[in-house]
Design brief:
Blueprint lengths: L30 H5 L15 E7 L5 E7 L1 H4 L4 E6 L7 H6 L18 E2 L5 E7 L2 H10 L1 E6 L33 H7 L2 E9 L11 E6 L5 E5 L4 H12 L6 E4 L16 H12 L3 E4 L2 H4 L8 E9 L5 E13 L21 E10 L12 H19 L3 H7 L17 H12 L11 E3 L2 E13 L5 E8 L4 E4 L9 H13 L6 E4 L16 H26 L13 E4 L2 E4 L6 E3 H8 L3 E8 L3 H4 L5 E13 L4 E12 L6 H20 L5 E2 L4 E2 L15 E8 L23 H13 L5 E2 L3 H4 L1
Parallel strand pairs: 1-11, 7-29, 9-10, 13-14, 18-19, 25-28
Antiparallel strand pairs: 1-5, 2-4, 2-6, 3-5, 7-12, 8-9, 8-11, 12-13, 15-16, 16-24, 17-18, 17-23, 20-21, 21-22, 24-25, 26-27
Helix pairs in contact: 6-7, 9-17, 12-13, 16-17
This protein binds dioxothiomolybdenum(VI) ion.
Organism: Azoarcus indigens
GO molecular function: iron ion binding; oxidoreductase activity
InterPro entries: Ald_Oxase/Xan_DH_a/b, Ald_Oxase/Xan_DH_a/b_sf, Ald_Oxase/xanthine_DH-like, AldOxase/xan_DH_MoCoBD1, AldOxase/xan_DH_MoCoBD2, AldOxase/xan_DH_Mopterin-bd_sf
Length: 758
Amino acid sequence: MNDLIQDLQSPVADAGTGFVRVGMPVSRVDGRAKVTGEARYAAEHPAHDLAYGVVVGSTIARGSIAGFRLREALAVPGVVEIITHENRPRMRSFDLFYKDMTAPAGAPFRPLYDGEIHFSGQPVALVVAETFEAARYAASLVAVDYLPQQHETNLMAHLARSHKPKPLKAGFSPPPDERGDAEAALLAAPVRIEAEYYSGVEHHNPLELFASTVIRGEDGHLTIYDKTQSSQNSRWYVSRVFGLGKDKVTVRNPYVGGAFGSGLRPQYQLPLAVMAALQLRRSVRVVLTRQQMFSLGHRPETLQRIKLGADHDGRLRAIVHEAVAETSRYEDYVEVVVNWSGQLYACDNVKLLYRLVALDQSSPMDMRAPGAAHGVHALEVAMDELAWALRLDPLELRLRNYAEQDQMKGLPFSSKALRDCYEQGARRFGWARRPLAPRSMRAGSELVGWGMATGTWDAMQMFARAGAVLHADGRLVVSSAATDIGTGTYTAMCTLAADALGLRLEQVMFQLGDSTLPVAPIEGGSSHVATVGSAVAGVCEKLRKRLFRMARRLDNSPFAKARFDEVEFAGGGLRLRRQPSVAMSVEEVMAAAGEARLEEKYLMLPKVLKQKQYLRATHSAVFCEVRVDEAFGTVRVTRVVSAVAAGRIISAKTARSQVSGAVVWGISQALHEETHADHRLGRFMNHNLAEYHVTVNADVGDIDVIFVDEDDRIVSAIGAKGVGEIGIVGVAAAVCNAIFHATGRRVRSTPMTPEKVM
Ligand code: MOS
C-alpha cells in the first residue's frame, strides 16, 4: 500500500491542536488550506501544455442537429479542435457500450453521442484551444443548424400523461402497497383535510463549478482531477466508457466545493475532457459555466396531494399521499417522495402513489434529502392543517400519533429519540407559550408566527475499506477513497483515528480523494461517516491490538501482565486504565520494538442481516419563528431551533455546521429558491446567482442546533447515523406553518414568495 500519496496535499491539523475525543467540537483540519487558497479544486491543478475546452450547449429543447458552421470558430487563433458528434473519435466502448447505458446509475448523460437533442443546454460541441479565452471566444462563434421539434417542458400542462416509474436506481424503494383501506377510512373519519402542494424546480448551485482537469502523462496515463462525490465512481465510469484499464486512469477529488448530490454521477464535462485528451493526446481542462450548471440536473418540480383523516382526539385514521414529479425523456429519475408518509406516524390506513411525467429536459438529480425535502414538507404542512382543523397544538398532534415501530412490518427502530427532539426543541424554543390561534402575535408592524415540523431521513450504511500506517515518529496516516464535499469528512476521520490511538490530532493525516486508495462508497445519502468512519475505527482497532501486543512483548514491559481491555489509548500512547502513570508513548513502543512502521487494512461490511431487523432513520424537530409584513408579503425567519437525533455525533462542530447550513437552505427552499422556465423556449431562464435567489446572511436570524442523545450501534459500529441531510427536512414546512400562524394564510406552494404571502 502507498503509505502516503505525497502530492494529494491532504490537510493536517495545526500543531498544538492536541488530544481530541469523538464528540468534541474540533475545528476543521482542512480549514487553513481552504481559507488560504492552498486547497486546490478540480479546475485549479496545473498541467504542462494544457488545452482548454469550452462546451457549446443546444439552444433548442428538442429536435436534431442538421449541421455545424465552424469556419469562423476554427479561424480563431489558438483553436486546436472542435469536437462534435460528427467528428468525435470512434471509440468502441463509447459507441457500443455506452449506447445501451443512456444514463445508468452513476453515469451522466452521454454527450456528443449523436445529433439528437433532448434538452436545452445539451452539449453539442467542445471547442478546444490553447487558452481558455480563445476557447470561450471561439465557442461563441460556433453556429449550429437545428431541426427543432415541438418540445414539452411544462409539468403542470402534462400531468395527464404521467406514468409509473421504472425503478432504475439502485436502492430506490417504490411506494409500498396500500395498508388497510385508506379511502374508506378517510370517508369514515370525523375530521378530514385535503390539499395540493406544489414545489418548483431548484438547482444545487455549489460554489465550485463542475470541472475536470485531465492530465496526460508521458506514458498516456490519465490523472483526472474531477469534481465528483466519488473518485472511484468517476474512475469506473471513464474506464468503462473509454475502454481504459484501471491502471490507466486515476481520478482525484481531494477538495470539493460543495455538491449536494450533483456530484453523485459524473457530469458531462468529464467524458468531454477525456475524449479531447485522448483525441489530442494532451492534457485538457473543461470547466462549466454557472449557466451550464443549470443544465446538469435539478430538484424536480413536484405536485402533491395529501388527504388526512383523524378522530376528534387527533388520532390519524387515514393518510393518502400522491406525488407527480417530472423526469427527462431518456431516463426515469426516481426519488422517495411519499414513502415517509407511511412511516412517520402511527396509522393503519395508508395509500401512497408516485408517478412521473417525462419532459424534454435534463434528468432531475438527487439534491440534499432528495424526495424528503418535498415529500415530508407536504406531509408536515398537511399535519399542521389537520392540527388547526382539530384546534389542537401541532406538536401535541405529532405526539398523539407517535410511531413506536415501523408501520409496515412492525419492526422496531434501531434508535429513535424523536420524542427527545420534540421535548428539547420545544423547551429551547419556548413552544409552550404559543397561542393556538393564528394572528395572535405582533411586533410593531409585523405579524409574528410560530410553526414546527418533524423531519426524517434514512440512516444508511454501505461497505468500505480503510488502510492505516503508523510511523515510528508517532504519525498516523489513515486512508480510504472517501470524499469530503465540505461536510467535514477529513475532520471526522482524523478525530476518530486520533481518539482511537490516543494521539494528538496533528499527528494524524487522513488521505481521501484518490481512486487508488482503499475502496470507499460515493459520498451520498448522509452515510459517509457511518460507513467510512466505521472502516477507520476498524483499522484503528487492529492497530491498537498490534501495538498492545508489541508493547506487551517488550523486555521488562510494564504491560507484560495486562490484558487488552485493561489498557487505554490516551496521552500519545497506551497506559493502564487503573494506573495511568504506567504508560508508554507510541514512539517509545515503536522504538523499543525496532519497528519503523505498522500497517493495517480493514474491510467494513455492514451487518446487513441484523440491520434488516430494524427500521433505521434519523429524526428531527424544527421550530421556527417568522415575522411577516402583510403589506409587502415579506417573511423574515427570525429564529429556528432544530433538534436532531442522528446517532452518536462524531465531530460536533462540523456536524453542527451541517445542520445550521441545512437550516439556511431550508429557509432558502421555503422563501427564495426557484428556477423559472420559459416553456416557449423550453429553457431555464434565471440560470445565474443574480436571478436565482439563494438565502444570504441577511435573510437568516438565530439558528440553534440541538443534538439529542442517541447512540446507534445497529446502523454503525461507531454509533453514528449521519447528519448531512436530516437538517434540511422539515425546515420549509416549519416556515410555512409559522407563516400560517402569523397570518392565518396557508401557502401551499414553495418558494413562498411575497405575492403568495400577501
Ligand atoms: Mo446526497 S443528495 O445523497 O449528495
